[in-house]
Each structure stands twice: as C-alpha cells, then as structure tokens.
C-alpha cells in the first residue's frame, strides 16, 4: 500500500531546499546597494584596463577536453550505487556494470585516438 506520510521528510526537504535560495535572492535584492556609474559598468581584470575586444575565439579542443572530462566524471558517479550494493544485487548487476565499464573504456580509447585528450 502506498502511504504518503512516509514521504513527509522528502517533501519537507524539497520545500526547504527550494525556499532558502529564493529567500536569499529576494533578501539580497532588497538589501543590496544600487550604485550606477562608469566604474560599475567597466570590466575589471586585476586593476588593469582591458585591451582589445572581449570576443576571443578559443580553440574547440578546450571544449572537447572539458566535455570528455564531464562525461567520464558523471559516468563514474553511476558506479557508486553498484559498488555500495554489490553483495545484494548479484551477478547480473555485476555483468551490467562490467558492460558499462567496457563502454566507458571503448569511449576513452576512441577519444584518445581522435586526439581529444591532447591538451596542446
């Protein structure tokens, strides 16, 4: 039987974790001083006036490197629940985790061969 009162802690946590950031933004918007001027509108980099245009083209390799890192970093998080409940889940889940890791290895070898892991 589905009982709603078992999820009271979840709903309380969800409401509190949603209300606190909203309140923080509202309070900072009300209490923050508003000063407009040329200093406020200028860009600041270490006290030095900026030179050149703000639109710089970055090499796509930096984005690829970051994307590969994020993909493999996030995928590693999925291994943690398997590791924590390995003794309960059995052999079928171990085989699924093994296939998952093999797919990650194939993906990293592919990225390595394509040169996505080379920094310079």
From TrEMBL:
Xref: Gene3D superfamilies: NADH:ubiquinone/plastoquinone oxidoreductase, chain 3 (1.20.58.1610)
Enzyme Commission no: 7.1.1.-
Any one Gene Ontology BP term: photosynthesis, light reaction
Keywords, ordered alphabetically: Chloroplast, Membrane, NAD, NADP, Plastid, Plastoquinone, Quinone, Thylakoid, Translocase, Transmembrane, Transmembrane helix, Transport
TM segment ranges: 12-34, 62-83, 89-112
Catalytic activity: a plastoquinone + NADH + (n+1) H(+)(in) = a plastoquinol + NAD(+) + n H(+)(out); a ubiquinone + NADH + 5 H(+)(in) = a ubiquinol + NAD(+) + 4 H(+)(out); a plastoquinone + NADPH + (n+1) H(+)(in) = a plastoquinol + NADP(+) + n H(+)(out)
Pfam family, one: Oxidored_q4
Its membrane topology: Multi-pass membrane protein
Highest taxon, organism lineage: Eukaryota
InterPro entries assigned to the protein according to its UniProt record, in alphabetical order: NAD(P)H_OxRDtase_bac/plastid, NADH_UbQ/plastoQ_OxRdtase_su3, NDAH_ubi_oxred_su3_sf
Annotated localization: Mitochondrion membrane; Plastid, Chloroplast thylakoid membrane
MF terms in GO: NADH dehydrogenase (ubiquinone) activity; oxidoreductase activity, acting on NAD(P)H, quinone or similar compound as acceptor; quinone binding
GO cellular component, one term: chloroplast thylakoid membrane
Function statement: NDH shuttles electrons from NAD(P)H:plastoquinone, via FMN and iron-sulfur (Fe-S) centers, to quinones in the photosynthetic chain and possibly in a chloroplast respiratory chain. The immediate electron acceptor for the enzyme in this species is believed to be plastoquinone. Couples the redox reaction to proton translocation, and thus conserves the redox energy in a proton gradient. Core subunit of the mitochondrial membrane respiratory chain NADH dehydrogenase (Complex I) that is believed to belong to the minimal assembly required for catalysis. Complex I functions in the transfer of electrons from NADH to the respiratory chain. The immediate electron acceptor for the enzyme is believed to be ubiquinone.
Record-linked HAMAP family: NDH1_NuoA
Complex formation: NDH is composed of at least 16 different subunits, 5 of which are encoded in the nucleus.
Family: Belongs to the complex I subunit 3 family.
UniProt protein name: NAD(P)H-quinone oxidoreductase subunit 3, chloroplastic
The organism of origin for this protein: Myriophyllum spicatum
Upper taxonomic lineage: Eukaryota, Viridiplantae, Streptophyta, Embryophyta, Tracheophyta
């Amino acid at each position: 039987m589905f009982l709603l009162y078992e999820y009271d802690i979840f709903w309380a946590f969800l409401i509190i974790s949603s209300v606190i950031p909203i309140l923080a933004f509202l309070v900072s918007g009300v209490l923050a001083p508003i000063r407009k001027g040329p200093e406020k509108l200028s860009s600041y980099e270490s006290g030095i006036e900026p030179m050149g245009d703000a639109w710089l083209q970055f090499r796509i390799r930096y984005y690829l490197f970051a994307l590969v890192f994020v993909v493999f970093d996030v995928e590693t998080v999925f291994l943690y629940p398997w590791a924590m409940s390995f003794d309960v889940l059995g052999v079928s889940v171990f085989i699924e985790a093994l296939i998952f890791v093999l797919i990650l290895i194939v993906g990293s070898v592919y990225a390595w061969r394509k040169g996505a892991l080379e920094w310079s």
